[in-house]
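JOB MANIFEST
job_type = single_chain_structure
chain_count = 1
residues = 174
[input]
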Amino acid sequence: MKAISLGFCTFVCAALLSAVGAAAQQPASTLAAPVPQVIRDAKKIFISNAGADSGLFPSPFSGDPNRGYNQLYAGLKATSQYELVSDPADADLVLELQLTAPNGPTNGSKVNGASNPVPMLRMVVYDRKTHFVLWAFTQSIEIAFLQKTHDRNFDEALSAILLEFEELSGKAAH
């Protein structure tokens, strides 16, 4: 009887290990983790302005530190997919946008894994009820030499974050 149990356990373990191995070899896209349902179900959004690091306005970017917040608000409003609320207590989700200029090496080497960091936009999605982070998006703003190119790169990074959020929530325009 013990021989049968040992053989059965060996068979079950081998089957489980082969299943795990097969799953590990699948492309990442087929193993996608679930998106929190609250993101897909959200109807009301509060946008939080987490500001911008100093030294980014009016150069290299035109406008003021509220530029990203204002553009994100306008972009979400234009989609007509959400009701934008002025009180976080009324929202399903809170989107926090921040523009950062990370410190880093000035003579970095990409071979060694270090480089001069570029400004980046980061949008964090919070569940309003629990205050837990549900998702985060980060877009680097490519370097440029001309003011108008800096501004275009800023706009493109913000548009990319908005599009990523819309795709994640299942509300992207088709």
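[summary]
The chain has one domain: 37-104+114-169.
The longest strand covers residues 44-52.
exit_status = 0
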